């Protein structure tokens, strides 16, 4: 639905491709979402750990939702479009036609999803090489990055895919190519997921040592030798064909894209905070961390100089905010974890019955005697698996289960469910504190958290993060901060703003500030001590059981 609009206002379109759906928003120059739409996209799981999508299906969904949000709008007021997407791998042939990434030869299934884990042996091989490029991914490459997936294709689909492939795109770059016909890649995708560095570019020795020397021979044409900063205008804007598909004017600006989490960070981290009595006021943007919390959580911190943080991705130059270095910590499956803990409890039917039409999580939050929490639930730091601080339960994404719950009773009622729910929220917040303290020990100076995403609507989640980290939490006025971030890209590409920083300050809006309750500081400091002991215990346990 559209809100009321003034005829002189400028608009930008943000398109976000998530794992299961594509969303679009029409955003005005002040950062207000005027219209939004969503459409599901298909996922195939032909075998365990294999997740595939169709670039055709994704593009058709992009076109459908974009047409919906711009319907009835004066086209001359729409100034630019920006795309963000998951960091999935798209494969096309030399004529840009979809090429199968599966042994069944199903060409329409030409996308290996970000959460696909088919390349475990390949990433082990890459990590064993201990090449210097791994310094930029916390020392260990993730199976969810692109080099192991490319190596898997070469080793398993040499004739049907590898030799026929013309281009390998990160999904955000595929979308900007589809819109403009230009094969330029975003610095965001290449430095975060492909080992490109902003100062030296591609490292020939890395690709040769891991067995992908083919990519070096053609001067990296297949994976990108024309690189743009996020928000930079791509080519001559929308092609006639893409303009017709999207329902937008031909030639309007298209921005170099971002990974979805980075778009969320862009949508919140640069907001104007004047008058909110925050410690980051009159401080550089480097004093802030953007936390994008939904199915998983990402912690985005920027710095003026490169900071290497053990177990945290980066530093990546200009990967989110041009001119600044990015470090990215994270916790996989946090949202899924909370849902799993609540829905898997024996008292869940009772919760459903008593909550009736109300939100289950809000009902738990408002229970009159919500306990303070003697149960401690440990979030495991899985640095060796994904080079990030991850949750203890990776059932949905990493398919690994490491759990430790201390203090359980034999109770099976609603009170115990509420206690486990609280312990889970606290554990996630303790994990965030661990990430922040690790970043700060390495050289970051952080005093304020900026939250967006679905979990930012959960009041207990927000308050626990404020209390446990001891830092104020800023909530975005627009819940759809990822879409605002994508629209900011389009605004920058249009030339209406001098820089992304200027666009962020004008279009990123603060909704509410949640201050930490310092009366609970001693309690959570003690809780954090227990957390660190449990993390150490889990590492010792894994070392003992390694190989079994």
From TrEMBL:
An example Gene Ontology molecular-function term: D-ribulokinase activity
One GO biological process term: pentose metabolic process
This protein's encoding gene: Fggy
Gene3D superfamilies assigned to the protein according to its UniProt record, in alphabetical order: 1.20.58.2240, 3.30.420.40
UniProt keyword annotation of Membrane present: no
Protein name as catalogued: FGGY carbohydrate kinase domain-containing protein
Pfam families per UniProt: FGGY_C (PF02782), FGGY_N (PF00370)
UniProt keyword annotations, A-Z: Kinase, Transferase
